[in-house]
Amino acid sequence: MNSTDIAESLAAAWQAMSLLELAGAVTGVAGVWLAARQNVWTWPVSLVSVAMYVVIFYEARLYADMGLNAFYVITSLYGWYLWLYGGKGQTEEKVSRVKKKEMLLMLVLGAIFTLCLGYFLDNYTQADLSYTDSATTAISLIGYWMMAKKQLENWIVWLVVDVIYVGVYLYKELYLTSGLYFIFLILCIIGYLDWKRDLENNSKEAELAIL
Fold first, then answer.
1. Is the pLDDT of residue 6 over 60?
2. pLDDT tens digits along 121-165
3. Does pLDDT of 95 surpass 50?
4. How far is CA 53 from CA 42, 67, 76, in A?
5. Tally of CB atoms within 10 A around 203
6. Number of domains in the chain
7. Residues 63-90 as b or e (16 or more Cβ within 10 Å = b)
8. Is residue 96 a contact partner of residue 57, using CB atoms and an 8 Å limit?
9. Of 113, 118, 140, whose CA–CA distance to 128 is shortest?
10. pLDDT value at residue 10
11. How far apart are CA 206 and CA 40, in angstroms?
12. Has residue 113 got a pLDDT over 90?
């Protein structure tokens, strides 16, 4: 294979990755927007997006993010079930607040996860930004778990991690993905306000039912 063939192959690969990143970004935005609107279609749409980002992050050597998106496939199915049925013996899941003990436990586990995964990636792989990548992965896992359970504070968790992600993806020259996470920042605010309003309405309805 001569230099011209190699250049053409690299150009074709870059074009394919760019299209994949674009498709992942579009479905990602659609998934978060649907989540903000509490639309159950957020889960199948998000499944498409996370599957694409498994490939994208593998190519970018962001292995923690790659593993995170692979895990999202499982949690998306769990969230899909919860949003439809609310768990065993229940109907559709309603917005709630996270308990302090639960949040504290998730933060402690997230810190341990960050240190362990960061150490492994830094010492045994060629991963870039090992500890930053591990931290955003840990925070994202917390956010995704809280979203599946429709806990209002998940939007605050996503807001924090999305700020970090914008910088990381700019550094990795994943410009479409960086732009995607900037849009996510806006959607986080919209989602928080919408879910908070719904939570307040549910509380009022519960009070009236008691009366």
1. no
2. 888 888 778 888 889 889 988 998 899 889 999 999 999 999 998
3. yes
4. 16, 10, 14
5. 11
6. 1
7. bbbbbbbebbeebbeebbebbeeeeeee
8. no
9. 118
10. 47
11. 23
12. yes
Alpha-carbon distance 148 to 39, whole Å? 12
Q: How far apart are CA 21 and CA 27, in angstroms?
A: 10
pLDDT band for position 104 (50/70/90)? very high
Amino acid at site 140: S
For the chain, the straight-line distance linking the first and the last C-alpha, in angstroms and rounded, comes to 80
Over residues 177-191, the pLDDT tens digits come to: 788 788 889 999 999
Residue 169: domain span: 3-210
- In a 13 Å sphere around the CA of 92, the CA atoms on its Cβ side amount to 6
3: confidence class by pLDDT, cuts 50, 70, 90: low
User: For residue 123, what are its two tokens?
Assistant: 């010492």
User: Two tokens at 186?
Assistant: 């806006």
d(CA 191, CA 186): 9
Contact 79, 92 (CB under 8 A): no
